[in-house]
Amino acid sequence: MQAFDTDVRNRIIKLVKGILEQNSLTADVTPQAKLVDIGLTSMDMVNLMLGVEAEFDFTIPQSEITPENFQSVETLERMIAAQLQPATAA
Questions:
Q1: Once rounded to an integer, what is the mean pLDDT over residues 25-52?
Q2: Do residues 53 and 60 make contact, with C-beta atoms less than 8 angstroms apart?
C-alpha cells in the first residue's frame, strides 16, 4: 500500500509542478504546502482538477469538488485514494 501512496503523491506533485511551469513559476511543492500559497489560482485549480481526472482515469464526484480537497497535495491524495479504494480492493 505504501508504494501506491507514494505513486499517487508523486503524480499529484508532477501535475502541480506542470501547472506552475505553465505560469512560469517555481515552488517547493511539499505534501503540506497550501496550493494557493505556492501560486495556484482558481483557474489553475480547475486545470488541476481536470489533470487529476485524466491522470487517475476517474471523474471526481461533484460532492468531492470542495476547497478542502484542493488545499494541498496531501488533501488531494486522500480524496484520490478514497475514490480509487474500491477499484484497488477488487
A1: 96
A2: yes
